[in-house]
Design a protein that fits this description.
Blueprint: H1 7-18, E1 24-32, E2 35-44, E3 47-50, H2 60-74
């Protein structure tokens, strides 16, 4: 997996390498007072992986990145180095 790729790109590459279906993302929301928090989950090979954090609506891609990183860790393919973008958790 190439340096500088997003977690989503790394997960797609891993799925191709493992010859399993490409990941399927779902955005979820939770009303919190006067605001809405957003997160993501990704299904890989029939297993759903939830993002660890909730995000502001403008950071939905970060939620998908978080879920992809969790899925890669489950597959045993996550590294400790962060992808090209940082997190902005809620």
């Amino acid at each position: 997996m190439a340096y500088g790729q997003s977690w989503q790109e790394k997960l797609e590459a891993a799925c191709r390498e493992l010859m399993i279906a490409l990941p399927s993302y779902q955005i979820v929301s939770d009303r919190r007072g006067g605001r809405t928090a957003w997160s993501s989950r990704v299904t890989v090979s029939g297993k759903m992986h939830n993002a660890r954090f909730w995000y502001d609506g403008k950071n939905l891609n970060n939620a998908k990145e978080d879920a992809a990183e969790v899925a890669l860790a489950y597959l045993g393919l996550s590294s400790s180095s962060s992808p090209t973008t940082g997190r902005s958790a809620w």
